[in-house]
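To: structure subgroup
Subject: Chain for Friday's discussion

All,

I'm putting the inputs and outputs inline so they're searchable in the archive.
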Amino acid sequence: MVLAEFRGFVSGLAVVTTVLQFLSGILVCKQYVVNRTTAEASPLPFIAGVLSTGLWLMYGLSKNDSVIVTVNVIGITLMTAYTALFYVFTYKKSTTLKQILVTVGVLFFMLGYVRVEENSEILLSRLGTSACVLTLVAIAAPMSKLLYVLRMRCTECLPFPMILMSFVVSSLWFLYGLIEEDTFLTVPNIIGAVLALLQLSLFVVFPRTPGSPLLAKSLQA
């Protein structure tokens, strides 16, 4: 495969861009520190991040893939730190703690399974499927905003830089999955790239604010 010649380049870019995506949580947490509260924000993005990176880390270790291991060691470290900081500043400590304990319980359960499963193919299949499903759920979550965009005919609620970064990251991991012939990497990331591209196309069709003239109308004129 021609792509195999670019394995190092693609994997390096995938790691760097994914870490940059993880680091975006610092900006969110900085606001919590400044305000001394998380207000009505949900901890689920961070907690789901801990679970997702934890499962992908187990998958990478089981597969002996240093690229997957590296990015998810960094990911689970950052997501754990973000979750801890969220807990410090949230007033919903009881609910947040329950969600954290459930996540920790799931990770320990999966870790125990990894230790007792002797069939490596079954292990990789189940870990990969679990990580893949969780990734697809995370990818689909922002799509709820599309209804608002279509109804209001503006893209003010869509974070352009994050969507663009998501497209780049998903595309790179899709390419890496092709190189490694890993379905668990290609499937969720091609879906993620397509969904991100769909959201990016909305910026061409609709204005940034409700009062702006539509680009689509200007193109028709």
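Points worth raising on Friday:
Residues 213-221 have pLDDT under 50 and may be disordered.
The radius of gyration is 19 Å.

D.
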